[in-house]
Amino acid sequence: MQFSNVYITATSKFLPNAPVDNEEMEAYLGLIDGKPSKSRRIVLRSNGIKQRYYALTKEGKPTHTNAKMTAAAVRSLFNNDPQKIKSLQLLCCGTSSPDQMMPSHAVMVHGELPETNSMEVVSPSGVCCAGMHALKYAFMSIRTGEAEMAVSSGSERISTLLRAENFEDEARKLNELEENPYISFEKEFLRWMLSDGASAFLLSNAPNENGVSLRIDWMDGFSFAHQKEACMYMAGEKEPDGSIKSYKEFSHKDQMEKSVFSIKQDVKLLSENIVPLGGIGVIAVLKKHGMQSSEIDYFLPHMSSEFFRDKIYTRLKENGTAVEYDKWFVNLPRVGNVGSASVYLMVDELFHSGKLKKGEKIFLLVPESSRFSYMYALLTVV
Question: Which residue, 40, 49, 84, 124, could crosslink 94 as a Cys pair with Cβ 3.0–4.6 Å?
């Protein structure tokens, strides 16, 4: 079978509203139990995020849906030209925060694009890797000749779940609130980590005639769920044996009082595993493709926090796969942690930076702490 080369020929982003700095966050997210958070400054000091974007007003009113933000990013790929967008054959949209459980996120995005034609749509679920899974489906479809032009995206609209009212019932119930005035670190620290936004790639079987394109050389993924229990989860509660009790097994009252629909993360499990397991994957993909880390010109690791920067570097160095800091390209402080869209936003900024030279290699690393999954990709500037 003859395989086609696959190129990213355009990138775009949509970040809602004005950036929100660290001091403004609680004005948008609200106060739990009417009190300023004691964890906010601790978390912000470690994560290095200076600003982020919320699809909210200060009164907590949503300004955009996830689907609308994603559709705006998709339109930008075609310069908002309704005739050009009709050539689109495949739409792959990854997110961890769809606007509803059904219909799927991608069909809702398609519904926001009435100027398109009928086409195949795909909605990878998951957390941070969902955007990369969308990219891989689009990549494989073009590579095998199933499509000639496709769009993949990553997006998140998480801020509504971070609003204080989602935690109030639990806050009122906890007797230890005076000693521990934030719900629990596992639940509340994510309020200061996450951001809204969308980003998209246009993929083709031919590069741009003018300007740069990014050839996708390969994409690989690994899951360690067969070895590790869930670390980041939502719509469930973790049991003592590590299993997840589904929201379907809680009464409506318990769902509210236990803030079952809030996002939680086992911080201890995260710190013990996220970097070492990711390092194993780096060794595996470089060996598989006969590549040395010294050949990488740009390293784009998705990090939830700057806290992990030195830990990632140290682990790569110990593994013999070090990428020096001057090759790192990260925009976490400027846009926040946008989950499945984060790697898209890094590529988009680099693509439009004017820095890229033909032949340069761009290495993407996306970890997902939900149950420790990882995606890797290599792009070449052409």
Answer: 124
Q: In sequence order, what E strands does 15-75 have?
A: 20-21, 51-52
The ranges assigned to domains in the chain are 7-211, 216-222+266-381
Q: Residue 312: is it exposed, middle or buried by C-beta count within 10 angstroms (0-12/13-18/19+)?
A: buried
Distance CA 308, CA 272 (A): 12
* Same fold flag, 7-211 and 216-222+266-381: yes
> Which helix (H) or strand (E) is 14 found in, with range?
strand 7-14
Q: Are strands 298-301 and 361-368 parallel, antiparallel or unpaired?
A: parallel
Cα–Cα distance measured from residue 235 to residue 250, given in angstroms and rounded to the nearest whole number: 10
d(CA 149, CA 110): 16
Q: What is the CATH number of domain 7-211?
A: 3.40.47.10
Q: For the domain 216-222+266-381, what is the CATH code?
A: 3.40.47.10
Average of per-residue pLDDT values in the chain: 93
Query: Taking a C-beta distance cutoff of 8 angstroms, is the pair 138, 106 a contact?
Result: no
What confidence score (pLDDT) does residue 38 get?
Answer: 81
Q: What are phi and psi of 23, to 5 degrees?
A: -75, -20
DSSP string, 249-288: GS-HHHHHHTTTTS-EE-HHHHHHHHHHHHHHHHHHHHHH
Whole-angstrom Cα distance, residue 159 to residue 157?
Answer: 6
